[in-house]
Amino acid sequence: MNPYVKHIRPLEDFQLEVVFENGERRLFDAKPYLQHGVFVRLQNRADFRAARVVAGSVEWPGELDLSYDTLYLESLPIVG
């Protein structure tokens, strides 16, 4: 089981800095998701920046969310 999200920070270029419960910091690139389905709404930067942590995952207004599994498995470690 992958760790839950503890904190996020939306970055420029539709990326999220994600801090997981185990202390890992990882970079998640949301751009590929913004071309599909309901996630198209997040192409608006203000909407994308409205991301928040809910129950260990990331959620945006309008019931859009990404699971902690997706965020962990599809992100890259931040070194340094």
Could you characterize what this model shows?
The protein has a single domain, classed as 2-Layer Sandwich (NE0471 N-terminal domain-like), CATH 3.30.2020.10. The chain is 12% helix and 39% strand. It has 2 helices and 7 strands. The protein has helices at 45-48, 68-73; strands at 5-11, 15-20, 25-29, 52-54, 57-60, 64-66, 75-77. The strands form 2 sheets. The protein has a 4-stranded antiparallel beta sheet with strand order 1-2-3-7. A 3-stranded antiparallel beta sheet has the order 4-5-6. Strand 5 (57-60) and strand 6 form a beta hairpin. The chain is globular, with a radius of gyration of 12 Å.
Name the helix and strand elements from N-terminus to C-terminus, one letter apiece. Answer: EEEHEEEHE
The residue-averaged pLDDT reads 96
Number of domains: 1
Low-confidence stretches: none
For the record, the CATH class is: Alpha Beta
Helix share bin: 10-25%
The proportion of residues in beta strands is 35-45%
Q: Any guess at the CATH architecture?
A: 2-Layer Sandwich
